[in-house]
Amino acid sequence: MIAQLLPKNGGAPITLTEPITVVGRSAKLCDLVLDHTSISKQHCMLVKTDGLVYLRDLGSTNGTRVNGQRVIRGALLPGDMLSFAGVTYKVHMGPDAPLRQNAENRTDWMPSAPANTAPNTHPRKLSDSSQSDVRFLRDSDLLLPD
C-alpha cells in the first residue's frame, strides 16, 4: 500500500515509506521534518499497517486535527484532511506503485510461472514433522471446556 500526504497549498506529495513515521520539527528526532514554528519537536506518529494509517499525537502544543477535529489518536481514511497545527495535508492511500516502468510508461509484466511447466493442481500437504508455524485445528479445539 502506498500512503501519501498531499499538501493542501500545493507542493510535492510526502510518501510514507516506513511502517512508523515520527512527524515533527526536530531533524534529530523525527523521520518527517516540517520546518514550521507551530509544529512541535515531536508532533505525532503515523503508523502504516493492514491497509490503514493510524495517527497518534505525541502531546503536541498546537494539536493534530483530522477533518478539523482535534484528535489524540485514530485511523486515517483516504481523503481525510490532516492538519499539524496550521499545516494541512490530504491523505491519499492506494495500491503500491509499479517497481519498474518501460520507456512507454507502461507497467512491465512478469509471468507467474514459466510457460513450459504445468501448473501444480494439487496443494502440497505438510507432514506432522514439518517445521511450519501453521497449526491445523479441529472443531473440538475451539470449544470451551464444560
Question: Could you outline the blueprint of secondary structure elements for this entry?
Answer:
Layout: E1 2-7, E2 14-15, E3 20-24, E4 32-33, E5 44-49, E6 52-57, E7 64-66, E8 69-71, E9 73-76, E10 81-84, E11 87-94, H1 139-142
Parallel strand pairs: 3-4
Antiparallel strand pairs: 1-2, 1-11, 3-5, 5-6, 6-9, 7-8, 7-10, 10-11
List keywords for this structure.
five-stranded mixed beta sheet; single chain; mainly beta; six-stranded antiparallel beta sheet; 1 helix
Can you describe what's shown?
The protein has 146 residues and is mainly β. The protein is built from 1 helix and 11 strands. A 6-stranded antiparallel β-sheet has the order 2-1-11-10-7-8, with no helix packed on it. A hairpin with a 2-residue loop joins strand 10 (81-84) and strand 11 (87-94). The longest helix is centred in the C-terminal third of the chain and has 4 residues, at 139-142. Mean pLDDT is 77; it is low at 98-103, 105-114 and 119-133.
